[in-house]
Amino acid sequence: MKRAAFPAAAFIAAAGLPLAVAGPASAATVYVVTATISVGTGPSGVAIDPTNGTVYVANNGSASVSAISAATNKVTATIGVGTNPVGVAVDPVTHSVWVADNAGAVSEISDATNTVTHTIRATEGAGLGNPYGIVADSAIGTVYFTDNVTGATWQVNEATDAEGLAYQSPGGNSTGIAIDSATGNIYPVGANGFAWPFTPVTDNDLGAIQLGTLPYGIAYDSANNFFYVANYGDGTVSVINPDTYSLIATIPVGTQPVGVAVNPGTDTVYVTNLGSNNVSVISDTSNTVIATVPVGKGPYADAVNTSTGAVYVANSGDNTVSVISPNNGPSSGGSVTANATVNQAVSLTGLTGTITFPAANPGTTSTANAAEAYTAFTSDPAGYTLTLAAGGSALTSSGGGSIPNNDLSVTETSSHPGTQTFGAASGAVLTLAQTTAASSDSYSENWALAIPSGTAATTYSESFVYLVLGN
Fold first, then answer.
1. Closest C-alpha among 175, 163, 88 to residue 130
2. CA-CA distance, 164 to 178, in Å (whole number)?
3. CA 164, CA 57: separation in Å to the nearest integer?
4. Which of 138, 170, 168 has the alpha carbon at shortest distance from 153?
5. Do 360 and 290 sit in the same domain of this protein?
6. End of a domain among 292, 326, 360?
7. N or C: which end of the chain has fewer CB within 10 A?
8. What is the pLDDT of residues 6-37, one digit of tens each?
9. Euclidean distance between CA atoms 192 and 350, whole angstroms
């Protein structure tokens, strides 16, 4: 027979989930994948033509470049290029797309016809080596690309197609490359852990800047005059001040970061994490990660359409491009904040009254640490049973959307440690504790809500009830 050793206590949690959208990039900005586009094999480079909105993707495994319409997110052309295309750059002034082929060539594509107009091979120039990173300087009509074997940086005159050695880094194995648009200085980075900036035309060496382990991608942020470098080997991003040629910050990101893209208009930096299948979003005002966005498998490179804010991510592991759309409006998703209000029908000592989930993005988990702390007491020698029941099967909205209960878990960290996840059935119950003796027990709980990708921007709610009965 059940004996009520002390009264039951009820916990009613109304979890309101307003989704914040719009405004400048911050923890409340929406970052969700709104489209996934199939391209060639092993996409490893991406660039955007700002004059027509076309996205160009270098497919390393299928010797091609995919042209994607930003308006429709559809592939409009597949262009055959060299054997191992890995990098791609656009010069909007000359209407040319330049592709670095790691097998020893550089191809020029007309953005008007999406056809190859010229290919410079290693046999034509002074070696050319193994082109990897590539960037176009529209101001002087020159394309620069790195050699990831010798460490050389080569240049091509866009008007004459004349090529030659621009700079030989002393470190070897150059990977990414970027241009300081304020000064025109060129910044190649090397797998040896350094950036080796030099001046164009005169090719003056500006010194070496120590970075993290195995740097790959680099991008220039014209809004704050910093360079951001993805360090594949240690999961960080290095921030360079080009005024002092010095490292000013190191930002932890995901696993094996490779690509970097910047949107100076929204003060955001996007870093592709090859090993963790996501993109880290960095605020360039605080140099901290403000969001992590799940994408496809093996994200290798990315580019930002500064007109729309859309970010295009080349996923080398599943042959797709993910389109991340920040500030996309309440119909598609948003940054989630959740609050749970506690109404104490009868006494469990110490219930705080409100649980607040920190802001998080769809596709991530919001965790409220130490969300609830309380004490259960009984003098009954048989002890008590403590349960937590859901009022339904999901947190629901008035518009019909829902977040299922099995995306919600509770972790007890004190008297009876362990993590439990609600079942999918309506009224699912968690047994938090069963005691067998008189006791006074302290409880501390972390509540975690896994927010599905594409969660609609609206308010969700559900009731939960704590119940304590004597054994």
1. 175
2. 18
3. 26
4. 168
5. no
6. 326
7. N
8. 223 333 333 333 322 222 333 347 687 888 99
9. 56
Q: What is the pLDDT of residues 277-334, one digit of tens each?
A: 999 999 999 999 988 888 999 999 999 999 889 999 999 999 999 999 885 433 333 3
* Torsion-angle region of 391 (φ positive above 0: left; ψ -120 to 50: alpha; else: beta): alpha
Number of domains, the chain: 2
C-alpha 94/C-alpha 3 separation (Å) is 84
Distances in whole angstroms, Cα of residue 349 to Cα of each of 35, 215, 224, 375, 443: 49, 54, 52, 5, 10
In this structure, the answer to whether residues 309 and 344 fall within a common structural domain is: no
Structure tokens at 414: 């004190």
Q: Same domain for 309 and 366?
A: no
Is pTM beyond 0.85 here?
no
Give the contacts of 327 (CB within 8 A, at least 6 positions apart). Answer: 21, 22, 23, 29, 30, 266, 309
Domain housing 143? 31-326
C-alpha torsion 345→351→354→357, nearest 10: -130
Together in a domain, 254 and 373: no
Q: What is the CA angle 277-280-283, rounded to 5?
A: 175
Cβ burial 281-294 (10 Å sphere, 16+ → b, else e): bbbbeebebbbbbb
